[in-house]
Design a protein that fits this description.
Blueprint (H helix, E strand, L loop, with lengths): L1 H6 L5 H12 L5 E7 L12 E6 L7 H13 L6 E8 L12 H22 L7 E7 L4 H10 L12 E7 H7 L15 H6 L1 E5 L9 H12 L16 E4 L11 H9 L3 H7 L2 H10 L7
Parallel strand pairs: 2-3, 2-5, 3-4, 5-6, 6-7
Antiparallel strand pairs: 1-4
Length: 293
C-alpha cells in the first residue's frame, strides 16, 4: 500500500494512551482521535452522509470490513461520504479486557488504513470516503448520534451535521428497540429525534438465536404496521431501517471471538483469514489475545 504509507503514520501506543486520558478527563462525550487520510480540521471533513460503525473492535474483523464497504458501495447516501469507526469507552480510566482500550484504538487505526485501501480498489482515490476513528462515553445510539451532530467535527450544509447511517447487526436493532433501555418512562420516545434525522442499516444475523431472514423482516414490518405504537414506536421509523444480507447460508461466520480463539490456538492461517493484513500484523507484534479469557 505505497500510497497510504506515504500519506499517513499510525499513532503510537503512548500517543493513544495520552489521547484517551485527555478524553476521559474532559467534559466531551465524543472526540475524533485519528483520520485516514489525515485531516487538519473539521472544515476538511466534508460529509453529507456519515456511516457510523460502532463496535467493541476486540479486534476489528473482515466482517467489519464487509459491513462498512457494502454500506459505502450500496447505500444511496448523498456524497460526499465519510466513515466513522466508533469505540465506546465509558470507563477509559479502568482496565479493559481482553485488549485494553489503547490497543483496540491501535487496531482500529490499522483497520482504518486497510479499509481505505480496500475502498480505493473499487473507487477512484479522490472519491473514496475518508475514515475516522473516534471515541465516546455514551452508551445509547440516540445519545451518540446527538453528540456527533453537536461536535462540529464534520463540515455539512445542514445545521444538524451530516445524515448518520448507523451500521448494526440485527441483534443490536433488537436492543435499540427494547424499552428497558429507556428509563424512567421505558418507552421508545427518546428515539424520535434520532430516527427523524438518521438511519439504521441492519445486517441480518445468520445464527438461530435471531430467527431466519423472514422472521427478521417481519420484526421491522411489525413496526411499520403500528404494532409497536404502545411502546412509543412510530410506523415511519420502518422507512429509516434498511435490512441487508449478512453471511451467506453455509458461509464462514466471522467474529471477534473466532479471531481470539485462533490466536490462542496458534492458528495463524485462520487469523489472516478473519482479519485484515495490518490488524493481523499488530496482533502478532503485540502478542494480543494469547491468554485465556
Amino acid at each position: 500500500m505505497p500510497a497510504l504509507d506515504a500519506e499517513m503514520r499510525l499513532p503510537s501506543l503512548p500517543e493513544l494512551r495520552s489521547a484517551l486520558a485527555s478524553f476521559a478527563s474532559s467534559p466531551s462525550s465524543f472526540r475524533l482521535l485519528h483520520s485516514v487520510p489525515p485531516q487538519p480540521s473539521a472544515s476538511s471533513r466534508h460529509a453529507e452522509t456519515l456511516y457510523v460503525l460502532d463496535s467493541s473492535f476486540n479486534p476489528p474483523t473482515r466482517a467489519h470490513l464487509k459491513i462498512a464497504a457494502s454500506a459505502v458501495g450500496e447505500h444511496d447516501g448523498a456524497p460526499p461520504k465519510r466513515l466513522l469507526l466508533l469505540l465506546a469507552v465509558r470507563n477509559a480510566d479502568k482496565a479493559s479486557q481482553p485488549a485494553p482500550f489503547e490497543q483496540r484504538l491501535a487496531l482500529m487505526t490499522a483497520f482504518a488504513r486497510d479499509l481505505l485501501a480496500h475502498l480505493r480498489l473499487s473507487a477512484p482515490a479522490a472519491s473514496a470516503p475518508g475514515v475516522d476513528v473516534g471515541v465516546t462515553k455514551l452508551p445509547y445510539f440516540h445519545d451518540k448520534a446527538e453528540a456527533i451532530s453537536r461536535s462540529s467535527m464534520y463540515a455539512s450544509p445542514s445545521a444538524d451535521g451530516p445524515e448518520q447511517v448507523h451500521l448494526v447487526g440485527f441483534d443490536t436493532l433488537i436492543r435499540i428497540l427494547n424499552t428497558k433501555y429507556y428509563p424512567p418512562s421505558h418507552t421508545l420516545a427518546p428515539l424520535t429525534p434520532f430516527l427523524r434525522r438518521h438511519r439504521l442499516r441492519v445486517t441480518h444475523r445468520a445464527d438461530a438465536d435471531w430467527g431466519g431472514r423472514e422472521e427478521q423482516r417481519a420484526y421491522v414490518a411489525d413496526l411499520a404496521d403500528g404494532k409497536r405504537e404502545e411502546d412509543g414506536g412510530r410506523r415511519e421509523w420502518a422507512d429509516k431501517i434498511e435490512l441487508v444480507k449478512g453471511t451467506a447460508e453455509g458461509g464462514e461466520v466471522v467474529s471477534s471471538t473466532k479471531v481470539r480463539e485462533a490466536v490462542r490456538t496458534g492458528d495463524l492461517d485462520a487469523l489472516r483469514r478473519l482479519v485484515t493484513e495490518a490488524v493481523a500484523a499488530w496482533i502478532v507484534q503485540e502478542g494480543l489475545y494469547r491468554d485465556p479469557e
